[in-house]
Write a structure and sequence with these properties.
Number of helices: 6
Shape: globular
Distance between the termini: 26 Å
Helix content: 25-40%
CATH architecture: Alpha-Beta Complex
CATH superfamily: tt1808, chain A
CATH class: Alpha Beta
Number of strands: 12
Strand content: 25-35%
Largest sheet: 6 strands, mixed
CATH topology: tt1808, chain A
Radius of gyration: 16 Å
Length: about 200
């Protein structure tokens, strides 16, 4: 969910980091600055719920993970950096991230066990652009939480309905499973996770 910022010129990632105001949410798409608008209440409830259930799982499994609140995911060699709704990081690999200490930014798939995007309006960004880019980075698991059911019929079915798409990286390519209604969401990273699609959409057990 992004909107174009009024800044006309393109920026490098280094210029973007120096320019970006503290406390404001922005992304960089091929050098163009995008302002992330304030999410709607339901969007925030779902993102918060997903963060909570994932945190519960990695603490239970005693994994060296954390959920970063404002860290960026950058494509290596490109002037593109995203601010995911939920970003799970592997703390053991942050020492290998050259931009982590100075810019709270990660670039390596080994640093990112799971990323989640909650879809609201601009569904093509999450379904197409970020899907391609997260696959290129090598992020092992990518959730698209389409709680409004706005994605293309060819992807989520006809009639459209709220859907969670879990992408798993296999041999460098994403395989996807769709979860709707009372189906249990299957996560390769957290196989013991017990939550249905509807519980995520309702942000409640």
């Amino acid at each position: 969910m992004v909107q174009t910022f009024e800044k006309p010129q393109t920026l490098t990632f280094e210029q973007f980091i120096k320019w970006k105001p503290d406390g404001a949410y922005y992304e960089l798409h091929d050098g163009v600055v995008y302002k992330v608008p304030q999410p709607k209440g339901k969007h925030e409830e779902i993102a918060g719920f997903v963060a909570e259930i994932i945190t519960r799982e990695y603490l239970h499994l005693q994994l060296p993970f954390l959920i970063a609140k404002t860290a960026l995911v950058k494509l290596s060699g490109k002037e593109t950096a995203y601010l995911p709704d939920v970003l799970v990081l592997n703390r053991t690999n942050l020492a290998n991230e050259p931009l982590w200490e100075q810019a709270s930014t990660v670039q390596k798939g080994d640093s990112i066990p799971l990323v989640v995007e909650v879809v609201s309006t601009n569904w093509r960004l999450d379904y197409l652009t970020k899907l391609k880019d997260y696959e290129e980075i090598g992020i092992r698991e990518y959730w698209i939480v389409d709680y409004l059911g706005v994605g293309a019929k060819r992807i989520i079915g006809d009639p459209k309905q709220p859907t969670i798409l879990v992408h798993s990286l296999v041999d460098g390519e994403y395989l996807v499973n769709l979860f709707q209604g009372d189906q249990r969401v299957i996560s390769p990273t957290f196989p013991e996770l017990e939550v249905t699609a509807n519980q995520v959409f309702q942000a409640s057990f």
